[in-house]
Design a protein that fits this description.
By secondary structure, the chain is of the alpha/beta class. Helix content is 43%, strand content 20%. The strands form 3 sheets. It has a 5-stranded parallel beta sheet, with helices on both faces.
């Protein structure tokens, strides 16, 4: 991928908003801001600085002792959609938008299991940010159950993503160093395909600053 796409023009955002953000919803005053991007692209950072409630999709990984987990090269393939519980995640999102709160798991990546839970509340916010590496397939599931969705793709240079991801994962001791390096190279190679998939699904490409501006503006307009 070349240089990150510049901030989408106001006109383009307006047109895309008509196509993707006015979905029929049982809770029309609440909406999911679905943030997708490669691991290391800054999804969690955007969630934090946005000031909105955050729903962490990565907390819905399956426990490491689940016999149905997909495997690759002799180890669990945590980048495969089957390592993740999409039904539980979307059900919890639906509950959050409908009632204003939901209890979600807290998943420990080093321990490969949920270790606690947290209460996510909407408060006065009209949007909740849902972010994680499986955000792309989640979009179709959200639309299928009638949730209003604003889909955003964080468009940042893949070599920088590689560096941020490796630094974070090593610092947090997420997995052995050789596993992290091997996974990082595989993700770097796959990133152009992932980007194409996201844009074809309806995600809007933004830089970090552009995404933040758009999220803040959309909160005021919901």
């Amino acid at each position: 991928m070349g240089s990150p796409v510049a901030v989408v023009s106001a006109a383009a955002v307006a047109v895309a908003g008509e196509a993707t953000c006015d979905d029929t919803s049982d809770s029309p005053t609440r909406r999911v801001v679905l943030v997708a991007g490669p691991s290391g692209s800054g999804k969690s950072r955007l969630s934090t600085i946005s000031g909105l409630p955050v729903f962490r999709l990565d907390d819905f990984y399956r426990d490491g002792d689940d016999p149905c987990l997909p495997r690759r090269h002799g180890i669990v393939d945590w980048d495969h959609i089957d390592s993740w519980d999409v039904d539980s995640a979307v059900t919890s999102l639906s509950t959050l938008l409908a009632t204003g709160q939901v209890e979600t798991p807290i998943y420990s990546i080093p321990q490969n299991r949920a270790v606690a839970s947290r209460l996510v509340t909407m408060g006065d916010a009209r949007q909740v940010i849902a972010e994680g590496i499986f955000a792309i397939p989640v979009l179709a599931h959200c639309r299928r159950v009638g949730l209003g969705v604003l889909p955003i793709w964080l468009d940042r240079h893949r070599s920088a993503n590689f560096g941020r991801r490796l630094h974070r994962d090593l610092a947090e001791h997420r997995k052995p160093a050789d596993v992290l390096l091997r996974r990082g190279v595989a993700l770097w190679r796959d990133e152009p395909r992932l980007r194409r998939q996201a844009l074809q699904a309806g995600f809007l490409p933004f830089t970090m600053s552009g995404a933040l501006q758009h999220v803040v503006a959309s909160e005021a307009s919901v």
